[in-house]
Design brief:
By secondary structure, this protein is α/β, with parallel strands linked by helices. It is 39% helix and 19% strand. Strands 1, 2, 3, 4, 5 and 6 form a 6-stranded mixed β-sheet that branches. α3 (41-55) packs across α4. The termini are far apart.
């Protein structure tokens, strides 16, 4: 009797999944092949922006042209001198969302503007971003890093005060790397991508902004 109920419920479940038209939450599961979906990077960027601006304390001030928000390119957490098409795309969509919320936005390319300590790979955020933010009278700077472990992508973003490096708000998210995300990171699904590798270290932003 229970087996018959299960058999009857399977078609209903499949029909529901088909009606959803695929879901990124199914990526990394056995259903990815049939019902997986590429992550919506616009929705992701908007989520990052909305959560950071809503959680910022003290709150950011919208509609103030003299106090812009600086948005940097998202960079590789293991090598802050490197970015990717994904890192640039997140910067662009986040900037657009901030403008939609009424903030004045200026983009800066992190790897070309900020000094990098030789051999350490760590960005001198507290000094260099503070200098840039002071010159532009920015009320906040949005910085972010990307880390990969196996087929998982870890996204970390922070809103910081340029003058002292204090964190106004933070955002962390884990995504399963679909083929589109892999391509934007210069990778592709191959034997080496599925081999386990070490868990990424904690975001360097946490250490640099203490």
């Amino acid at each position: 009797m229970p087996s018959r109920r299960i058999a009857r419920s399977v078609p209903l479940l499949l029909a529901l999944l088909l009606a959803l038209g695929g879901c990124a939450d199914l990526n990394g599961t056995r259903l990815e092949k049939f019902f997986g979906k590429d992550a919506d990077l616009i929705d992701l960027s908007y989520e990052i922006t909305d959560q950071l601006t809503e959680a910022a304390l003290p709150p950011l001030v919208p509609r103030h042209p003299g106090m812009p928000v600086l948005v940097t390119t998202f960079v590789d957490n293991n090598d802050l001198t490197k970015t990717s098409p994904l890192g640039r795309l997140l910067q662009e969509h986040i900037s657009s969302r901030l403008v939609q919320h009424g903030y004045t936005v200026r983009e800066i390319k992190l790897t070309s503007t900020i000094s990098i300590e030789p051999r350490s790979g760590e960005t001198v955020l507290s000094r260099e971003l503070g200098k840039i933010g002071g010159e532009l009278k920015a009320q906040a700077i949005l910085v972010g890093t990307l880390s990969r472990s196996n087929r998982n992508l870890y996204i970390s973003a922070r809103l910081i005060v340029p003058t002292n490096g204090n964190i106004l708000a933070s955002y962390d998210r884990q995504l399963h790397l679909d083929d589109n995300l892999l391509a934007m990171l210069g990778l592709r699904r191959h034997g080496d991508i599925d081999n386990p590798i070490a868990e990424p270290p904690p975001p360097r932003l946490n250490r640099m902004l203490r």
